[in-house]
Amino acid sequence: MKSPMLFPGQASQYVGMGKDYYDRFPEARELYRQANQTLGFDITELSFSGDLEELTKTHNAQPAILLHSIVVLTVLEGQGIRPSIVAGHSLGEFSALVAAGFFKPLDALLIVRRRGELMFESGLERPGTMAAVIGLEVTGLTEAVAEASVDGIVVIANYNSPSQFSISGEVEAVDKAMALAKDKGAKRVMKLQVSGAFHSPLMEPTISPLRKYLEKFRHGHLTVPWVANVTGKVVEDDDQVLDLLSRQLSSPVRWVDSMRLLADRAEGPVLEVGPGKVLAGLMKRIDEAIPVHPLTDVGSFAAVLEGSE
Predict the structure, then answer these.
(1) What domains are defined for the chain?
(2) Could you tell me which of 46, 62, 168, 284 has the fewest CB atoms within 10 Å of its CB?
């Protein structure tokens, strides 16, 4: 059986994630053991019983979330379920590319650990912030961002649904855009607890070092179509992958475009492979006709497996 697969990004982490998979499946235990060895610290303990503040740090959250996704993916494959098309939200692109055969699982862990470090370092060099904007259509938010740009850099960073976005940039400009978004009718506007202005031009210093780090790893070939955040379009050419990943942190996440494209191609149940249910919630706002089944724990996994029989 083949299914479209979605892979969550940062902010999906929670203490205890993956433990029931670890307890139930030997292949999950082996992956966590290998991850501890590869990363040089006990990511198993951090994921299962660590401090939430420590787990939430960018350089820890990224490998922990990716590892959970890879564990669920491996268990799915053991049950004969493989991807037909993949997409990941920001960090989730690296999990998606493991599923697509482009990256080896342990290499991807090292890559996202380094990616998290680069994001943190860039946030120190070029400080910025992010905010969520909910209940305002894209036209109104685009106007707010354009007006606020006179005070500095601010852009729409995530097109998460037709009425849910995040903005990113320099603090003064983001604050101005938040106020303007409220004036234009946004139902909710709130600052995000992040260490930098992700998916904005302030992250451009990460492009070159991330590209160089990616080039250290031998990669395979895309075995299924991948829908890229940067373009919102299908990528089937291996030569485009590293360039798109390198540009991703300084470019917006075009999730609405990505999900509309995936919905047109979807055959079989769409699976959210990893912790949380964020992507399932976003899909409800993008296309209610396409249900997404989260696999955050063994119970949800068993329900999906039973439904596929």
Answers:
(1) 2-124+202-308 (3.40.366.10), 128-195 (3.30.70.250)
(2) 284
pLDDT digit string (tens) for the chain, length 309 residues: 899 999 999 989 999 999 999 999 999 999 999 999 999 999 999 999 999 999 999 999 999 999 999 999 999 999 999 999 999 999 999 999 999 999 999 999 999 999 999 999 999 999 999 999 999 999 999 999 999 999 999 999 999 999 999 999 999 999 999 999 999 999 999 999 898 999 999 999 999 999 999 999 999 999 999 999 999 999 999 999 999 999 999 999 999 999 999 999 888 889 999 999 999 999 999 999 999 999 999 999 988 887 665
Are the C-beta atoms of 173 and 151 separated by less than 8 Å? yes
Residue 277 CB neighbour total at 10 angstroms: 16
Instruction: Measure the CA–CA gap between 87 and 90, rounded to whole angstroms.
Output: 9
293 close to 3: Cβ distance less than 8 angstroms: no
In the chain the first and final C-alpha atoms are separated, in Å, by 10
CA 39-44-50 angle, to 5 degrees, is 110
Three-state SS at 44: helix
Amino acid present at 278: V
Catalytic residues: 90, 199
In one-letter notation, the amino acid at residue 24 is R
Rounded to an integer, what distance in angstroms lies between the CA atom of residue 259 and that of residue 262?
5
